Amino acid sequence: MALITLNRPHTDNAITTEMGARLTEVLETIAVRPAVRVAIITGAGDRAFSVGSDLRQRKDMTKEQWLRQRQDFDRTLYTLRQLRKPIFAAVNGIAYGGGCEIAQSTDFIIASDNATFGQPEAMIGLAAGGGSPALLPRLLPPGKALQMLMTGDPITAQEAYRLGMVNELRPQDELLEVSHRIADKIASNSPTAVQAVKRAVRMGQGQPIEQAIAIMMEAHWRSAVHPDRVEGIGAFNDDREPTFQDPDY
User: Please, is 74 exposed, middle or buried when counting C-beta atoms within 10 Å of its C-beta (0-12, 13-18, 19+)?
Assistant: First the structure.
């Protein structure tokens, strides 16, 4: 299991160019390290997950520097969305702008009961560009997503949970413990099967039902002839815990 911490608590974990590049590097390392079966991403401190891009760093940027940073951040979010391994967000406070979009780009969200989610870009003259116009309407009713994107007003963790954006709510001091427990459960399952299911869900979204099922069946048949299936069925019949091997990739 890998724990990724956005670690600039004195700025509410605002993301600089250097921090974005480091996050890309970490995600790319996790992608090729077979022993890492699941990852959690969270924020340092007790106030914020991340407030998104560091606007103070952008203050003196030229247009070219700003566009270069935007390109770098696009790469970070693409790498996060394309990660084959399960990764989820433990949102421990404020998740605004790009921070909210990082959470949306993971497989699911666990949140502390004091968390808030917001896309305030329109308030500073920007159209949100880190994925939320595409992702947020999949996590919330489309009208609610549009209201958030148009007004910039945040929603509480309780509302996000009620609307299905957040899977679980926990007191802040229990968030990481619960997240580790979820990660341990995922890691104890066949990593090959878990990755295959993630791929089937991701690739099947928005497809006609029979095409989505065909994607699912390809993953299913591959798992049917995989050593993990032999181990899993054998462990069930022997009344023992299975021991799954790390995948080759």
Answer: middle
**What predicted TM-score, i.e. pTM, was given to this entire model?**
0.93
Per the listing, tokens 């308030």 go with: 123
Q: Are 52 and 100 in contact (CB under 8 A)?
A: yes
Residue ranges in 108-207 assigned as alpha helix (H): 132-139, 142-151, 157-162, 175-188, 191-204
How many degrees, rounded to 5, is the angle at CA 53 between CA 47 and CA 56? 95
Tokens of 60: 């003196």
Residues in the chain: 249
Q: What tens digit of pLDDT does each residue of 115-127 get?
A: 999 999 999 888 8
Residue 142: how many other CB atoms lie within 10 Å:
10
Q: Give me the catalytic one of 121, 177, 210, 218.
A: 121
Active-site annotation holds for 231: no
Residue with tokens 């709510």: 169
* pLDDT tens digits for range 91-120: 999 999 999 999 999 999 999 999 999 999
Of these residues, 18, 25, 64, 101, which one is catalytic? Answer: 101
What count of Cα atoms within 13 Å lies in the side-chain half-sphere of residue 7?
5
CA separation for the pair 170, 245 (Å, rounded): 32
